[in-house]
Amino acid sequence: MANYSILKLESQNYISWANDVKYLLMERQVWSIVAEIEIELKLDVSTDAEVAKEVKNFKARKQIVMSIIYLNIDSSHRRIVERIDDPVEAWKVLKMYYQPDSKAHHMEVYSSLMNCHILSEERVH
């Protein structure tokens, strides 16, 4: 297994961080958990030993995903997901926090863009 150097998630690098972590999870063959392609089987009284073993294996892989996500977040930002055990939920919360998709957010970005001015000492190339 290769040793990767992923910049920890901070306030300004969500998009590159998300791509890097996604590919790391793909390399570890656990991205399908976050992408909700692979879901946890439900146990009941009629569950045989093989299915129970698969469920146990899935839960272990799910913990690996969560630890990869958590450990690749800067310690000052970990509070966002520190009480979340489900990697799917953690991934969605991080996306919503760092890449909000709301009219208010779009208006804020648009407003800050419209307030940009070229200073007299700057040149346009």
Automatic annotation (TrEMBL):
This is Retrovirus-related Pol polyprotein from transposon TNT 1-94. It comes from Trichonephila clavipes (Golden silk orbweaver). It holds the Pfam family Retrotran_gag_2. It comes from the Eukaryota.
